[in-house]
Amino acid sequence: MSQREEGPLLDSYDRRILTELQRDGRIKNQTLADKVGLSPAACWRRVKALEQAGVIRRYTALVDADKVGRGLCVLVMVSLVRHSTDSSGEFEAAVRDYPEVLQCFAVTGTADFMLRVVVPDMAAYDRFLTEKLFPLPDISQVHSNFALREVKQDSAIPL
Questions:
Q1: Rounded CA gap, 39 and 45, in Å?
Q2: Between 3.20.20.80, 3.30.70.920, 3.40.190.10, 2.60.120.40, what CATH number should domain 66-146 receive?
Q3: Is residue 142 within 8 Å of 129, Cβ to Cβ?
Q4: What is the mean pLDDT of residues 50-67?
């Protein structure tokens, strides 16, 4: 795997390995090697190289939020008073520590950040707002959009 400025070059074997690992992160190396057409040793080396290059960031389990009592999903648009490195940095550092925030994106448009928040219910979301989000410095506006149902959720990057 060679390195370009924007990231590693992936050949067809790397892409097949990544596709299979996105389907099943617990796949055995032998099975993975068979599926992508490599020897187990060559496959293992490629997986390790992808991990070391940061292409594979981590392995995880996908958990059903409803079944663990975190079924309320809220998409929160947050605007800051000031657009400075300090105020953005403080906000970003704070939300990284909030377990309810699954994703945070700096965005363009009418807001500065978009959060995906999961909580058990409306009362828990109210506590999240009043105890965690509203006390942060430089918050100008918060707009909450409640997910009615999940239409699609996928974690696999198309390769």
A1: 10
A2: 3.30.70.920
A3: yes
A4: 96
Cβ count near 18 (within 10 Å): 20
Q: Yes or no: is domain 7-52 CATH 1.10.10.10?
A: yes
Which of 116, 120, 123 minimizes the C-alpha distance to 145?
116
What pLDDT is attached to residue 6? 55
User: CATH 3.30.70.920: which residues of the chain?
Assistant: 66-146
* Percentage with pLDDT > 70 across the chain: 95
Instruction: For residue range 91-146, list pLDDT tens digits in order.
Output: 999 999 999 999 999 999 999 999 999 999 999 999 999 999 999 999 999 999 99
What average pLDDT does this structure show over 27-31? 98
